Amino acid sequence: MFVTDSPSPSSLLGRPRRHEALLTLPAQEAHVSAARHFAADLLETWSVPATERDSAVLIVDELAANAAQYGRERMTLRLVLDDGTLHIVVTESGMAVQRRRPDIAPDEHGRGTGIVQYLAQSTEIHQTCSGREVRACLRCSS
């Protein structure tokens, strides 16, 4: 885990500071709740308002769940709060891992990306040589 709140030149001028945190976990469903709790606690510490924090935590939950279900060895959660915008980035990386997937009813599967797109102001997906990166940006009034 990596967290930094070092002052940037803009914070010295009375503007908001840049906050950044990084958490790397095994890409397993058992670790999704750790990513969710990490984000909730950190965003509260950064004074992100409750409604925006709730939206951000739901985005983290959906992206981490997708990374755990479809991902590779590791998933990394990166949160950056900069000038009123929260950047949520989940990266799945490592070697491909074969996972047995239980049969899931169609109505209980596949809503995650729609929820993320609804809550976020923007989303991007990038395929990398070692996995995939999904980025969601959310305006915050902190």
Q: Residue share in helices?
A: 25-40%
Distance between the amino and carboxyl termini: 24 Å
Biggest beta sheet summary: 6 strands, antiparallel
Number of helices: 4
Strand content: 25-35%
Structural class: alpha+beta
Q: What integer value in Å does the Rg equal? A: 16 Å
Describe the structure.
The protein is of the alpha+beta class and 142 residues long. Helices cover 33% and strands 32% of the residues. The chain contains 4 helices and 6 strands. The chain has helices spanning 9-12, 32-45, 50-70, 112-119; strands at residues 2-4, 19-26, 74-82, 85-93, 122-128, 131-139. Strands 1-2-3-4-6-5 form a 6-stranded antiparallel sheet, covered by helices on one side. β5 and β6 form a beta hairpin. α2 runs antiparallel to α3 and α3 (50-70) runs antiparallel to α4 (112-119). It starts with a strand and ends with a strand.
Provide the fold topology.
Elements: E1 2-4, H1 9-12, E2 19-26, H2 32-45, H3 50-70, E3 74-82, E4 85-93, H4 112-119, E5 122-128, E6 131-139
Antiparallel strand pairs: 1-2, 2-3, 3-4, 4-6, 5-6
List keywords for this structure.
142 residues; alpha+beta; 6-stranded antiparallel beta sheet; globular
Give a summary of the structure in a few sentences.
Helices cover 33% and strands 32% of the residues. It contains 4 helices and 6 strands; from the N terminus they run E-H-E-H-H-E-E-H-E-E.
